[in-house]
Amino acid sequence: MTPKQWWHPTRHADRRPLLLARNRIQAAIRGWLEGQGFIEVDPAALQVSPGNEAHLHAFSTTAIGNDGQGRRMYLHTSPEFAMKRLLAAGETRIATFAHVWRNRERGPLHSPEFTMLEWYRAGEPYERLMADIAAWVALAATGPLRFRDRTCDPALPYERVSVAEAFASFAGIDLPATMNAAGETDAAALAAQMDAVGISHMAGESWSDLFSRVLSGRVEPHLGLGRLTVLDRYPAAEAALARRCEDDPRVAERFEVYACGVELANGFGELTDPVEQRKRFDEEMAIKARVYGETYPVDDDFLAALALMPPACGCALGFDRLVMLATGAPSVEAVQWVPAG
Fold it and tell me: pTM, whole model, 2 decimals?
């Protein structure tokens, strides 16, 4: 029997309670943001650059000008570049529920089009974002967060662990030993440790590739079980948009929040040095060219605005994932009013 489409009346009747819960959660967070003095903004999705992270893949199109000439443009993978321009313009607390697009991604936790809740606080420490997320999870949930056989109690205080601590605890990896004092990485040193603890890898993989293998295979399944986990202080090599920690230049002010083993949010103490940011973008695009045979343009207008941006912190939260976890739905597309075709 052919599975019923999402728009079939009986299928929609099953989905409708989840969709109404989505609306309730969105309204509750909007009310919270307004009470905190945030302004909701609406950035354009069509941009000259979709972002410059090596392993994110964008949808591209051709914009035809009045002169009939074509120009390559992209649907953004995040509203980040646009929102940082607004910080440069003088805004201090901004948020958006933005539709974003990422190619090569579809599954229970991924959709090629999804809703990202992104927000920024100028002049505040990045730890403030962690408290924001905990407050929203409590607003969203009417009981435990659930994904498959895993649960997470939103009423409990979140735990905060560094990436180095998590790698040591769950994978037996001494991550700092694979970096020098400046944060430069040693793939051979990490590969040797992985061999010693029985984590498979392929010859010639970069440090970043190896890092991702350990994180996804050995660390993430243990995060956000019972309570929210804030995985903090990412290696600087894995934080292209974050400023380095003052007490240790090997790591950066980047964190991710996990619930039920699912990554829910990704936040930063924002890098505001345009020279350093261009350098990091170039490095990311060099990796993208090597691995995927393509690159995306660097947005020079964004870098010019970055020079005027005040110290700030910002975070992106997968809103569909939050609704999925709060309702116990089986996938992100189960809580989207109209899933991507």
Answer: 0.95
